[in-house]
Backbone:
């Protein structure tokens, strides 16, 4: 299948005046976010995959700041509390480790994938090579540096462990990899060797459609969708999925994609080859440098997931005890499962209470199977998963709501 689209915008590191990215302030390594506790750097890990050497590099990066390392909802890592002069040594450290292959593409290397990556009994195809090819192709195209920092690719091995709302999704099927756009199925299917090219063409088509759209603009500080050429996601474009599919020579199919219906819970999973994968949960998605180094000593292939878990594939059962000794939760159905919190007091100037301490107390009394909960220290509810029960504070006090208004 031959697909072509010509976006009209390129950017340098951190964006340029010619890029219509509006107030997109997603942090990266090149551009830090000024949090209350210092600079925050987000390190992209395509497919959530990180080697032992790179775990040690992230641990060293965290020691440039306050030592806090967080797992994000896109299977990336971020380090906190960086001083004003940390930018250059941080970039040098992560470049040497291979974690910053292209500074101009720093914020756009958002690729989610199954943490099992073809090893689950329900998997249809392996995905590691496809994720790597997609990342290489993304970094090789200067035009794609113009993607917003929130734009998301997903590569699903057929077992359904990736987010359902990815802007560009590839799902393994018997006939190849099917393309989805903003959670909508399309008529487009590519052979494994052509799947990365199809996904990249879809990203170019988004940029072209955005450039041709009306010049609607997002108000400063407003998180709701902005129409037209300041859109961050395909779903924010007028008829976005339909328009991008049309530019690719395809159309939409009825129904939504079937990914995102399940998560890989803490515990042991028997792989299709008979070996095991062990999944663990860092409490409230935080690790310290010594924990990263202990992970690096345990395995050379660690996988993060959008549900803020850590998975060691092709593992021995002894990995369960080793992960518990690091301080991770391996027991299934604990009170920590499905519980998250924002950065909280001391890390965000908007925070009103020590919400992380409150969430940790809540973990001790939550029952197995309780709904997903997200605790926030203000009404912005940053980091809240879709359909979570939100526990947050506003000017009137504590509030509990289901789903975003």
Residues:
């Amino acid at each position: 299948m031959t697909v072509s689209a010509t976006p009209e915008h390129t950017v340098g590191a951190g964006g340029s005046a010619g890029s219509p990215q509006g107030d997109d302030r997603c942090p990266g390594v090149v551009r830090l976010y000024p949090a209350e506790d210092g600079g925050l750097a987000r390190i992209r890990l395509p497919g959530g995959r990180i080697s032992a050497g790179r775990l040690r590099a992230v641990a060293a990066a965290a020691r440039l700041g306050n030592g806090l390392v967080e797992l994000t909802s896109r299977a990336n890592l971020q380090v906190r509390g960086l001083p004003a002069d940390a930018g250059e040594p941080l970039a040098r450290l992560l470049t040497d480790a291979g974690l910053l292959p292209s500074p101009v593409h720093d914020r756009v290397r958002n690729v989610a994938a199954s943490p099992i990556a073809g090893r689950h009994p329900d998997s249809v195809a392996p995905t590691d090579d496809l994720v790597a090819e997609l990342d290489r192709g993304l970094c090789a195209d200067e035009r794609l540096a113009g993607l917003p920092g929130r734009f998301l690719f997903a590569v699903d091995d057929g077992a359904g462990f990736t987010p359902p709302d990815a802007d560009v999704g590839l799902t393994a099927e018997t006939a190849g990899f099917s393309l989805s756009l903003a959670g909508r199925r399309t008529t487009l299917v590519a052979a494994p060797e052509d799947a990365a090219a199809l996904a990249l063409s879809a990203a170019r088509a988004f940029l072209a459609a955005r450039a041709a759209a009306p010049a609607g603009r997002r108000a400063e500080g407003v998180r709701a969708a902005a129409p037209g050429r300041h859109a961050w996601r395909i779903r924010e474009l007028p008829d976005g999925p339909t328009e991008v599919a049309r530019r690719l020579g395809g159309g939409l199919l009825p129904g939504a994609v079937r990914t995102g219906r399940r998560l890989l819970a803490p515990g042991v999973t028997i792989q299709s080859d008979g070996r095991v994968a062990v999944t663990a949960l860092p409490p409230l998605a935080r690790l310290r440098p010594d924990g990263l180094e202990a992970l690096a000593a345990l395995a050379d292939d660690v996988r993060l997931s959008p549900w803020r878990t850590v998975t060691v594939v092709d593992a021995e059962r002894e990995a369960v005890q080793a992960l518990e000794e690091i301080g991770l939760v391996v027991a299934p159905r604990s009170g920590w499962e499905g519980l998250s919190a924002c950065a909280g007091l001391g890390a965000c100037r908007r925070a009103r209470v020590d919400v992380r301490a409150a969430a940790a107390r809540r973990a001790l009394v939550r029952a197995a199977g309780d709904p997903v909960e997200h605790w926030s220290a203000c009404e912005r509810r940053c980091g809240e998963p879709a359909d979570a029960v939100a526990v947050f504070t506003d000017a009137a006090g504590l509030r509990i709501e289901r789903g975003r208004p």
